[in-house]
């Protein structure tokens, strides 16, 4: 069995304003304690009114503006990769339809090369219509967009 930790919350909500120092300390602790991986969530934005699936928790007026301070996962993992040579670097879950597929492939393969093959990532289609609106992507087409992106990703990342 393997164990890791997840950075799936906005740092401001954790009371951490000095992000780089906090990530350095967290990475050190995770590495020294023998965990296997560190994971970052992929959120482009947290809409202020997330009403679709979780209205009781995130209904109208219930979103904290500090929630926008969540760090971008690929850039954050690049920072972490420079601090440790052992930890696996995880993205949970990369929302393919919200990002350009060529840029996705380039960024992920670059991180994987520079970290010497330590990248792990899950993919998803996304669940918040409001986030898709914010990114100018059609929520109803997200399944098809994800399939297209997967095919491109295979070509761009897995070919010799």
Plain-language structure description:
- It is built from six helices and four strands.
- The chain has 160 residues and is of the alpha/beta class.
- The protein has a single domain, classed as Luciferase-like domain (TIM Barrel, Alpha-Beta Barrel).
- A four-stranded parallel β-sheet has the order 1-2-3-4.
- α3 packs parallel to α4 and α4 packs across α6.
- The chain is globular, with a radius of gyration of 16 Å.
- The two termini are 31 Å apart.
| % residues in beta strands | 5-15%
Alpha carbon gap, first and last residue: 31 Å
Tally of contiguous helical segments: 6
- Report strand order across the widest sheet: 1-2-3-4
Order of helices and strands: EHEHHEHEHH
Biggest β-sheet strands, sense, barrel: 4 strands, parallel
Percent of residues in helices:
40-55%
Compute the average pLDDT.
84
Topology:
Blueprint: E1 4-7, H1 19-32, E2 37-40, H2 55-58, H3 73-81, E3 88-95, H4 101-114, E4 119-124, H5 129-134, H6 142-158
Parallel strand pairs: 1-2, 2-3, 3-4
Helix pairs in contact: 3-4, 4-6
Keywords:
40% helix, 4-stranded parallel beta sheet, 160 residues, single chain, TIM Barrel, alpha/beta, globular, 14% strand
Give a quick summary of the entry.
By secondary structure, the chain is α/β, with parallel strands linked by helices. It has helices at about 20-30, 55-60, 75-80, 100-115, 130-135, 140-160, and strands spanning about 5, 35-40, 90-95, 120-125. Strand 3, helix 4 and strand 4 form a beta-alpha-beta unit.
